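Reviewer comment 2.1 asked that we show a complete input and output for one of the modelled complexes. We chose the 2-acetamido-2-deoxy-beta-D-glucopyranose case, as it is the one discussed in the main text.
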Amino acid sequence: MAFSPFPLFSFLFRLSTIILAAFTGKPKYTSVFLFGNSYADTGNYVILESPVLSVITIDQPPYGMTFFHHPTGRCSDGRLVIDFICEALGLPFLPPSLAHNASFSKGANFAVTGATALDLAFYEANNITTVPPVNSSLSVQLGWFDALKPSLCSTARQCKELFKNALFIVGEIGGDDIIYLAAYGVSLEEIKETYVPKIVKNISMAVEKLINEGVRTVVVPGDIPTGCTPAKLTLYASPNKTDYDPRTGCLENFNHLSKYRNTKLRVEVEGLRRKYSHVRIIYADYYTPVNQFATEPAHFGFSNGAITACCGGGGPYNFNASAVCGLPNATACKDPSTYVSWDGVHLTEATNRYIATSWLYGPYAHPPILSY
Ligand SMILES: *[C@@H]1O[C@H](CO)[C@@H](O)[C@H](O)[C@H]1NC(C)=O
Ligand SMILES: *[C@@H]1O[C@H](CO)[C@@H](O)[C@H](O)[C@H]1NC(C)=O
Ligand SMILES: *[C@@H]1O[C@H](CO)[C@@H](O)[C@H](O)[C@H]1NC(C)=O
Ligand SMILES: *[C@@H]1O[C@H](CO)[C@@H](O)[C@H](O)[C@H]1NC(C)=O
Ligand SMILES: *[C@@H]1O[C@H](CO)[C@@H](O)[C@H](O)[C@H]1NC(C)=O
Ligand SMILES: *[C@@H]1O[C@H](CO)[C@@H](O)[C@H](O)[C@H]1NC(C)=O
Ligand SMILES: *[C@@H]1O[C@H](CO)[C@@H](O)[C@H](O)[C@H]1NC(C)=O
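Response of the prediction step:
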């Protein structure tokens, strides 16, 4: 039986953390800034692509069915990990940075669905034609941050003060690079050797840039076990049983790649910590909790399992690339909280809530966001 950290231990731990935080009276985060992809996008993709595309599936029902009760541009049935983090910090949900009428005084969300860690120009130069022509990579998002800054603070001193008390999150990003590379036919071995180091380096460069702006707390999330997603299980189905983890039914090769990339990222984060000892750099682990849900789904209330999507167009994992969630020929399950996967790629609100809790109070962020 797998060790389950959540129920009692986690409750007592959370309680003690909260009490400790209350008594030590450490500073609270006054704002949150996030860079990333669909795991955290709160509307940028829809704003960016509405003038370009006739149908945006993530902007259609049943997206948002559980919490907002209408689509918001979030890739889930409800709240994302970032939304639960904002709630726990007593801050409003982060507005997408491209919203023209929003207030960014409590932070901004630069994440875009499909965003890559490496630049579009890099992929274009290498003829990787499966990367969609949306110019929203990590470095572009950092450019948006630079452009927004004058409206947030006017002197260098003011900006430093603002960023010192802010929580910055860089990631998850890089997962989409791997999706596009694999779709182009680049072998997982070559992705590992050629692209993962570049992805990790660019995430690290982004963190360093922010530190140089005066940022004092940065969360760097890794990736989920991507071999457990209904999309990968459908698109890369193998006739050979040995390609699957017998405990979870997940694809071993993609999970190995995710683990490899996470390990490299974690080593990079440790290097940054040594270099910038005055900065709290937190590695946030998406892999372990999601892998636990896949190992023992019923234990966490996921009675419909971890490798079948709630919303989809049928098939063994309820994922069909030509009838994805948001199209009229896909349907959603009655109770998304009994599934880990929402649409075959992204997680349900119930899953996001578990992950957020484990990052805020432990044990899956190193150190937990709310341990001072
Ligand atoms: C911004 O405008 C959009 C569309 O006009 C509206 O739906 C949204 O609620 C507005 N947001 C804010 C923060 O005012
Ligand atoms: C990495 O990021 C930097 C700036 O943040 C950018 O100039 C560079 O092109 C990126 N590398 C790749 C391969 O996309
Ligand atoms: C993406 O946008 C940046 C500025 O934000 C620009 O410098 C770059 O040329 C654009 N890349 C492509 C491929 O359009
Ligand atoms: C990309 O394609 C163009 C045109 O087909 C070719 O000239 C160029 O050498 C290719 N670049 C790479 C890196 O393969
Ligand atoms: C399945 O994969 C294993 C390990 O790669 C290999 O040894 C075996 O021959 C494969 N079986 C079939 C039926 O292809
Ligand atoms: C997706 O749906 C089409 C049309 O019904 C079908 O031909 C195809 O086999 C389905 N794909 C999967 C993976 O179920
Ligand atoms: C689902 O609908 C889309 C758009 O209407 C269509 O392109 C696609 O072929 C349909 N897929 C299936 C499996 O019926």
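The radius of gyration is 20 Å. We note this here for comparison with the apo prediction described in Section 3.2.
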